[in-house]
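Pilot study result, target chain (299 residues):
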Amino acid sequence: MSMKKISFLLSLFLSLGLYAQDSNPTPKDSIWKTGGTFSLLINQSAFNAEWQGGGTSNYSGNIVINYDINYEKDQYSWDTKILADYGITKTKEQDFYRKTSDRFEINSIVGRQFQDTNWFASALLNFKTQFDKGYEFDEDPNTGEEIREKETQFMSPAYTQIALGALWKKSNNLKVNISPLSGRMISADKEFTTTPGYEDGDFFGLDEGETTRFEFGASVNAYAKFNIMENISVENILALYSNYLEDPQNVDLDYTMNLVLKVNKYISTNLTFQAIYDDNAAKGFQVREVLGVGVNFEL
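Predicted structure:
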């Protein structure tokens, strides 16, 4: 991804957040502030044998947990966000279910404030992986049956990142962390790098027979959450990473938007959009979108 596109994305990201400011600032005398949501989205369609309008019986479900832990006292700040997202779908004609989403991520930033400014010296820890196995689906040419081949699984891949830098924090709902010193480790089970015909880099950049890949570079992590209008909120999460050691011009991008239209205390419409660019995983953008009416519970 080009630097011009990245600069535009960051400018747009900050402009949206500054326009909205912060709807829920943390009180200055508060030490700990915790909270989040649990969402369950369910969709189901069924057709009997006599139905002539076309269609296939199917069901889908998605569970989302979004939880924040914030600490603030004197010149010190510690913000942790936990994201867990898992969804499946299955039609009557399919032998296997398909995943619609699968994500587990922890993002934690510790900062010490510079005087009475919005800037902090910071240390960042980020970890992300998935819960379930991921498959590539095909059809057996001889029997016509659906077959699948495992492509990923829990902790394969797993990303662990540690970074030092500076945090600009307007509020708990608007912040950007810039880390010129950022180490990242990508790990996976050896079975994924020892398959017949494996070539270096095929599985998320790992060399043949290896279980880890180390990178050293720079990263930018941004977060902005605001209300568009009453009962409609938008959460934006952006992560950029450039590896100094190999193709630094190929910047990895991971952007997620969560839009929530609140109907009442328990019912809402939820839209999640995620775009990932990582040339070690795919030669283009990976995009997913989930839309549904769900049941929400505050944690």
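One observation from the pilot: Residues 16-27 have pLDDT under 50 and may be disordered. A full batch analysis is planned for the follow-on phase.
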